[in-house]
Amino acid sequence: MPEKLSNWFHRTEPSQFEVYSEKYKDFLMMKRKNGIIEVRLHTAGEPFQFSWDAHSVWSQAWMDIGRDYANEVLIITGTGDRWQTANPDVWKTKFKDWTADDKLKMYHESMRLLENLIFCIDIPTIAAINGPGTHCELGTLCDITLCTEDTDFFDPHFLGGTPPGDGMALTLQKTIGIKRAAYFAYTGQKIDGKTAVELGIANEVHSRDRLLPRAWELAEMMMERSRSTRHLTHSILSRPWKQALVNDLGFHLAHQMYDMANDEVGPHSRLMQVKERFKG
């Protein structure tokens, strides 16, 4: 619905959907209908494959989406039968051999891709996790999280010989508790969709063909309420995540990056030993 502002209180530079949806189209396919914006992760129209370019894009995209007052509800989903595909090849250059500026860029982007999702977006958020894959924390941080039965909530860091500091372990701690989070962080054991709902990581589990329609049903229900009700409800419900990120994300990430900076072997070699885990 159009925003009604007084003529003396207009927006100087609103973010334009046509501009940013084109800007990020190689990583995020966007569509919008009646105020509901759907953001679909992809790589060349196929399931999303992790890359450093995509890692840079997320934080910028969240800011542009959040600045666009025409966006009323956000749905985040993936492509095909996978949420994200891990790509151990991104670690072929050992982190200790990255330049100082490479490492600083990595630090800021790792912080902002989660912080901007929480701090820059003032509208209700729904994740529709459409299958297995890493970085489910992006979906866990949304107000409502839907998933498929074969969704694979797991943290691969310890398997690769790296402390789990980029948000996956943090979201597990805040949803399933410190003891369960410790177990799954150490073991890398799979948490499927049904178990994720039982443990409290996700809200509903659906078949893949039902998943996205259900997300739109929820979004359309939210649109029946006023803009202020939507915004302020999201503010209340996202506040615990804001507190968690402020309190702990930097601490977690600093530990991960310190260890990586001193790692003589590198995660690529270790991940290759368990690469079948990522193909599952």
UniProtKB/TrEMBL annotation:
InterPro entries: ClpP/crotonase-like_dom_sf, Enoyl-CoA_hydra/iso
Residues of the signal peptide: none
Highest taxon above the source species: Bacteria
PANTHER family found in the cross-reference section: ENOYL-COA HYDRATASE, MITOCHONDRIAL, ENOYL-COA HYDRATASE-RELATED
Name of the protein described by the UniProt record: Crotonase
Organism ancestry: Bacteria, Bacillati, Bacillota, Bacilli, Bacillales
